[in-house]
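Lab meeting minutes (informal)
Scribe: AK
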Amino acid sequence: MASISNQNFGVSYNPKGLCRIVGFACLAGFLVDMIVLTFPPALGNVEWRVGFLQQLGDRSIILLLGLALIMYSWIDIRPWRRKLALACLIIGVVFNLSSVLAIRDNLKVQEMAITNISTQASQLQTQIQKAQADPKANPNLTPERLEQAAQLLNSQANALKQNAKTSVLKNGISSVGNLVVVGLALIGLGQYGARPPKN
């Protein structure tokens, strides 16, 4: 039986080079996503900001992974490592500050949803009251039916308000949590890159 010897063909792989390629690919993908999500910008629109910050939080792990891989690949190149460390610190602080904006905007969206539900419910209540005041306008609507419709409307409006509160709260916690966690991780990555290497 012939044995195959382990030969070195002169090919060596540099893990830092691979990390650099994957890191830049992650950054490029993150930037393309953010550019697409940003247009058309509507900074004055609360719903747009909430959606944008939620998408930013959801995709932020790709940014963190890309920056960490690039930091690893440049760990021996002091000027690049320090610049990247500073960028990580700044982006981390921006992420943490944007979480405050996300909280405020989510509370506004919740308030707007509840106000909209209340307005629609009061308009329907007004129509029911008009029908109760003038039973001759529509003889098919009995006072019992109108009372049932009013009770059903109240219970549905309350359920819709509770659902709006719950869904906005869940989305808000998710996006704020992602922004804070990735922001803190980026700050930690920046501090790690800024410290002098161990000898």
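Next up, CB showed the second protein from the same session:
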Amino acid sequence: MTTTDQTTPRTGTETPRMLLDPGMNLTLRPMRYPHFYERYRDAIKNTWTVEEVDLHSDLKDLQKLSAAERHLVSRLVAFFATGDTIVANNLVLNLYQHINSPEGRLYLSRQLFEEAVHVQFYLTLLDTYVPDETERHEAFAAVDNIPSIKHKADFCFRWIDSVFDLDELGSRDDRRAFLLNLICFAAVIEGLFFYGAFAYVYFLRSRGLLNGLASGTNWVFRDESMHMAFAFDVVDVVREEEPELFDDELAEQVRQMLVEGVEAETQFAADLLGQGVAGLSIDDMRSYLEHVADRRMQRLGLPVIHGSANPLAFMELQDVQELSNFFERRVSAYQVGVSGSVGFDEEF
């Protein structure tokens, strides 16, 4: 990989560099994409540590769960065990290399730190919820041994591999492949798989259960919302710089990607809820997932797929105000509480 200046020869003349041009631009001034830098600064305001989450308060609740609810929690924890590690791997192996913006890479560096905190959080969750060492090992092996989780992991690995061999984005096809990888991890993996997992957590909290897990999930939710926002910012920039990449073929590929994502997450829902969890049905989870997928399509400026409403009333009753207004006040429970503002247009 080579370092470059602000311009590069593309057709025999000097033209401004574009975000996906090969190279390693190191020049922060003049700043080409200041909104990426603002994303980085907003992320710093959201600093939290795993030690601030009291998961031990959940231990009594775990004893109250029905067999079906214990199965739900077991599968959910098994997914959490490796989900953020997969995202971190794609960030390091694919995204950082090709987003040629030093301010953008500042944000990606911060995101990698946040993924590490999430991994630590879920490791602590496993250590607290699953005292038996053999059972913990089985949870970490879920990507190989539990079909519904393996199906989702294989989906992720396929998209990681789709651009793994690209040393640089030198052609139109290379850039389209990178865009699809970026959109997949933002809209499907972080924006659908993780949001489905959050819904189970908030369902349990609506029942007065596992408030420690829910409080930690609030913080992870903020991080994931910002990860999606940054990724969609990158898509917006590329759309402005290279509109020819965004044709009907790309739109159809994104549509099929989200359809496949909904199917994979619905299979996971059938596994989690298959023993009959009172108050949450597989059909409702599917409708919710379709609703979320449509939100992702709308954010990408594409037609919705399903037209499904959100059937999970309890999602509207969770601490949405607390989530959306996090940056508008000082938060004493956080290691870093900084005043400021950021807008989230994402809905559950």
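CB comment: The first strand starts at residue 3 and ends at 4.
No objections, moving on.
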